[in-house]
Amino acid sequence: MNDIALAAGARAAAFCAASLLLLITGFVFVGSLPALQNIGTFRMATDGAWLPTHDASGSFSLAPALVGSLAVTAGAVLIAAPLGVLAAVCAGCVAPRGIRRAFTLLIGVMAGLPSVVLGLWGLTVLAPIVASVHPPGPSLLAASIVLALMIVPTVAIATGAALGAAPDSTLNAARACGLSGLATFRLALWPIAKAGVIVGLLLGTMRAVGETMVVVMVSGNVPGFPTSVFDPVRTLTANIALEMGYAMGDHRSALFASGLVLTGVVLVLVLLSRRIGWAAHA
Amino acid sequence: MQRIPACCVPETHIEIDGLEVSYAGVPAVRVGSMPIYRGCVTAIVGPSGCGKSSFLASINRMTESVPGCRVSGSVRIDGVESGGDRRRLRSLRRRVGMIFQRPNPLPVSIAANIEAPLKDHGVGQKAERRRRAEQALRTVGLWEEVADRLHKPALSLSGGQQQRLCLARCLALEPEVVLLDEPCSSLDPMATDVVEQALARLRGRYTTVIVTHNLAQARRIADFTGVFWQLGRGREDSLVEFGSTRRVFETPAEELTSMYIGGAQG
Question: Residue A53: which pLDDT band, with cuts at 50, 70 and 90?
Fold first, then answer.
């Protein structure tokens, strides 16, 4: 009897979660329908600029914001990947036990740090430093660095878990052959951990793509194609957050379309990570 | 009278002296004195939990990576105390190879399983690594089976093939001693037979110590046998009896030995 109730409850919860997700995606899609019909995907891809209230017809290109999102994310992942992986390797394989414990605690705290706090630091400390190298400061580079700090814990935790998944028997093989630390990592740990590390990187990428607060605070928010890392950029997420308050009509609907594009990017990343996960288990 | 197998010159290669391995302060195995003869196959037999594997692991100091494990006493290889710092440990592990109960190939290709450890140990030339890999694979009778798929993952091999690959990986490093911890216990009888044939080829070239639950196997392949028993209930030394395999099996000197052999056979 209890089992039946539990199964029914679990099923109901799963159904609710899945249908909520579908509902929200559907809601975003319905919201962007007017933009898709009145402006059209062609104009949203090629209008050249995002000036929704510039004149009567406006220009609604999502391309600068998409490029902004992808550039900020790529920058963040490029910085966070080596940092996170090396930190986890160091903590997992090299460091003494005490430091390992402190590191794990620190990473946990860092993972839970509200992004607005990181943004605050980025805005008041990092942006002026960047500005001293090349003005204006709030820029693609600044946003990438702060986002990188945000996703380092994700990458480090995933890498740590992946390295921990290497079976003792494999490690014993490496020990019994008298392998050096580097060879042990390359031959015994990495081949098994590889897939987990890549999935961790993709999870980090998803966080970076979706992050709003940090980029609103430190990216400069100028909608345009960046030509250098010191240029300010605007991301899809920031676009929605900044303009939703006053947007109306097609403008408002174009913001929904921004959300739809974001959802698409994340969907691709999810599918990619599942594929890699499956490939590793096959 | 103790009959010494013809294949072996009974020259002590490894000398165990007052060895004790303990986990979290509880002694698991204690061996007052035991010789391991050069070029011979020495079997360690005894009931589960008598410390056979701990004894074996103390020879190449695998015990050092077990948390809470302490080893006291002495293990001398060619008169030199084993153990020491990381660098000495590395060369010890190269000289004293080990095969485990469950085959544990590295999760890389068949060829890399043998060649990468060689490279790590400073065998710089690729051609030399190739040559040694082929030779080792031939010694364990695996060459014909894998020659056309050396770059396939080692984990795609069958259990028996994996175990022979592990043996080849160990032999390619040109050890003096090969330690085997129940190497056939996870294999079916046919794979066991093939692995045993490979082990038979080691006789004379390597000093071999094999822990086994299988008394028939000890009888088939070992020149010398040590019978181990749990410590406690007045037993202070884990080693009940040591001697040539034939002598231990045919005319056991200790009551425990005859009971164990008789029980296991009857």
Answer: confident
Alpha carbon distance A201, B21 (integer Å): 43
Q: Is the ipTM reported for this complex over the cut 0.90?
A: no
Q: What residue ranges define each of the domains in chain A, with the CATH number in brackets?
A: 59-281 (1.10.3720.10)
Give the pLDDT of residue B266.
39
- Taking the CA of residue B95 and the nearest CA in chain A, the distance in Å comes to 9
Q: Which CATH number fits domain B12-265: 3.40.50.300, 3.30.450.40, 3.90.110.10, 3.30.390.50?
A: 3.40.50.300
pLDDT of A268 > 70? The answer is: yes
Q: What residues of A are in contact with residue B119 (Cβ under 8 Å)?
A: 183
pLDDT digits (tens, 9 = 90+) for B64-117: 888 899 999 999 999 888 877 778 889 999 999 999 999 999 999 999 999 999
Cα-only R_g, chain B? 18
The verdict on a CB contact (< 8 Å) between A169 and B108 is no
Given this model, what pLDDT does residue A282 score? 53
Cβ contact, residue pair A180, B120, below 8 Å:
yes
Starting at the edge strand found earlier in the chain, the sheet holding B239-244 runs B96-99, B177-181, B207-211, B41-45, B224-228, B239-244
pLDDT at B232: 84
Residue pair B183/B43 in contact (Cβ under 8 Å)? The answer is no
CB–CB contact A177 B97 (8 Å): yes
Instruction: For residue B195, give the amino acid letter.
Output: V
Question: What residues in chain B have per-residue pLDDT under 70?
Answer: 1-9, 264-266
Q: What are the b/e assignments for B17-32, b being 16+ CB within 10 Å?
A: eebbbbbeeebbbbbe
B100 vs A176: CB contact, 8 Å cut-off?
Answer: yes
